[in-house]
Design brief:
Chain lengths: 285, 321
């Protein structure tokens, strides 16, 4: 570590901000898209659902979680683009601080997530949603939601950092790469497991009477077992579907996060509730 | 030796699969010594190990074994010190495509810890020097190949590096872009920068480099100035182009040179032979052709091209293997 961690990180953050300034439309779209989804589910599709209490009380927490999880996409695209072009090689051949690329990008992503969160919460409030549960818990949850993509990027970059050295000009990997990919999968898994655990607090935003109040079986596990199980599951999934090693556990995390649904009580779901709310319907609550 | 900017001794690098049999030797005991303030060309076919060498020298890859020193610092143990003293122009443009030229240069200047003001001044200087002044704001995405390469070169010069690595700097450029890059490199050498240049183009090495190492299969198979390398394949040659390809056989028999060294190209009606005594050989060949009544279109003396040197050296290597 050098004395330049902060200045170099700030330089890298500025690089991301300069990208925003160059492509303002993209930034606006990324902020407006979740709002559109929210309006669509709220008024176009979901408006007719029979639920106890106002529908926005279910919808907004789900959309918040979904948006934060979508924040991954942009980050992963950007990181992949950097890696595939030569610019990372130039960074690595310069005397810059080791962690600056990572820290700089994380800071910019965190900023973007925070702005997205504020916009969405604002729209949610305008639609009549009020956060339930304690204020501290609420802000804690917002923080966690913003940090989620960043945690993911850390996982991504920890292989990136090793993977950089592992790439040669022809794109072949060196023998150490396999081990580093395992590290990456483990990091992914930790993120997902952590988010899945976090879903419980999102659940508390959803009022009772949702129809799927029973916690899923894994919620009885301690956090350690959850992390371990998540690692194992992500490794297995990643081996079977290498292309989808991000998408599949990601989808699970989003589902859990967005709707906080476990299994219904045996025979306990009235038909109107069994269809669930919004996206949850697709998975057959 | 104090005047060596780059020292590579017995560098090995393996790539590839999990099993030993899948591994590929990229460097196989490569030795190299580059004198400070010169342009050193590294010449070799695809897959010879040129890029691996540059990546090791610029601390992007670690050698498996061997001693590698750049500017007097070991690339393994003193990578940071090396990074302060080098500039790298890789095979692919190492630029932020979304940002403009000036933004790119300022970014790299700041990451070299020049400070905001100094980075801005330096960016202006470089844009001016590489004739990119009026394109500073356009995103690099929209640049032409030659402009992109010039900006790339400018970015590798942000701190006036002691040693500059150019990895196939003109691959994929049109002749004009190539000439631009060449003149930029020449102007650098005047400033005392040491340049290590890899290339597949023999003309490029001939034009720019004072010394050339020919690399094949991860090893240096020949080393010397362009002239030394050329004389190694037998010195001067005489080329004779005939009007009638049918007379090539008769002409070969007539030539006052040993038959073994003669090469015949029927399509171009050309025969080419090594000669030792230039003018005598020329007049004897012309006289012999005249006496035999063989019509020649062209008779010329020339130095061997580096292409011939290259084929000669790599061909000999293949026979030995």
């Amino acid at each position: 570590m050098s004395a330049y961690v902060l200045t170099d990180s700030w330089t890298m953050t500025r690089r991301e901000l300069a990208h925003w300034a160059r492509q303002p439309v993209q930034v606006v779209v990324s902020l407006v898209f979740p709002v559109m989804l929210l309006l669509m589910f709220g008024y176009l599709i979901g408006g007719g659902r029979a639920v106890a209490g106002p529908y926005v009380d279910y919808l907004v927490p789900g959309m918040l979680a979904l948006t934060m999880a979508f924040g991954l996409e942009g980050t992963m695209l950007a990181v992949t683009q950097d890696l595939n072009k030569g610019v990372i090689d130039r960074f690595r051949s310069m005397p810059m601080a080791d962690g600056a690329v990572l820290v700089g990008r994380s800071a910019a992503d965190m900023l973007q997530s925070a702005i997205g969160l504020v916009v969405l919460i604002g729209v949610g409030l305008a639609l009549g949603w009020r956060p339930q549960g304690g204020g501290g818990g609420f802000f804690g949850r917002c923080g966690a939601a913003v940090a989620f993509p960043v945690c993911h990027v850390v996982g991504r970059h920890s292989v990136g950092a090793g993977g950089w050295a592992a790439r040669d000009g022809a794109g072949r990997a060196d023998p150490g790469l396999a081990g580093r990919v395992s590290v990456q999968r483990a990091c992914h898994a930790c993120c997902y497991a952590w988010v899945a655990g976090h879903g419980r607090s999102v659940e508390s935003d959803v009022p009772d009477g949702y129809g799927c109040t029973r916690s899923p079986w894994w919620s009885r596990w301690g956090i350690g077992a959850r992390l371990g199980g998540g690692c194992l599951a992500a490794r297995v999934v990643g081996r079977v579907f290498p292309v989808r090693r991000t998408a599949v556990p990601g989808a699970w995390a989003v589902r859990r996060l967005a709707f906080g649904v476990g299994r219904c009580r045996a025979g306990g779901c009235p038909s109107s509730e069994r269809r669930g709310v919004g996206l949850a319907r697709i998975w057959g609550c | 030796m104090a005047d060596a900017a780059i020292i590579v001794e017995g560098a090995h690098k393996m790539y590839g699969g999990k099993k030993a049999k899948d591994m590929k030797k990229a460097l196989d005991g490569l030795d190299l010594r580059v004198v400070r303030g010169t342009v050193h060309g590294v010449l070799g076919p695809n897959g010879a190990g040129k890029t691996t060498l540059v990546r090791i020298l610029s601390t992007l890859l670690r050698p498996d074994s061997g001693r590698v020193e750049v500017a007097g610092y070991d690339v393994l143990t003193e990578a940071r010190a090396v990074r302060f003293r080098i500039g790298l122009l890789g095979q692919h443009a190492a630029l932020d495509e979304e940002l403009g030229g000036r933004q790119n240069l300022e970014l790299f200047g700041r990451l070299h810890h020049l400070g905001a003001r100094q980075a801005r001044v330096r960016a202006d200087e470089l844009l001016e020097r590489f004739d990119l002044g009026d394109t500073g704001r356009k995103p690099v995405r929209a640049y032409s190949g030659g402009m992109r390469r010039r900006l790339d070169l400018a970015a590798s010069l942000v701190t006036d590096p002691e040693i500059l690595f150019l990895d196939e700097p003109t691959t994929g450029l049109d002749p004009r872009g190539r000439a631009e890059v060449w003149s930029a490199v020449r102007s650098l050498v005047g400033g005392g920068t040491t340049v290590l240049l890899t290339t597949q183009y023999l003309e490029e090495a001939d034009q720019l480099a004072g010394r050339i190492s020919v690399v094949d299969r991860g090893r240096v198979i020949a080393d010397g100035s362009p002239d030394e390398l050329k004389s190694r394949t037998g010195g001067d040659r005489i080329d004779v182009v005939l009007r009638d390809a049918g007379q090539l056989g008769a002409a070969v028999a007539l030539l006052p040179v040993p038959e073994a060294g003669v090469s015949v190209d029927v399509d171009r009606r050309l025969l080419s032979a090594p000669v030792t005594d230039r003018m005598t050989a020329l007049s004897r060949v012309v006289r012999a052709l005249e006496e035999a009544g063989i019509d020649a279109e062209d008779v010329a003396l020339r130095r061997p091209t580096l292409d011939e040197v290259f084929l000669h050296l790599t061909g000999a290597e293949e026979e030995a293997a």
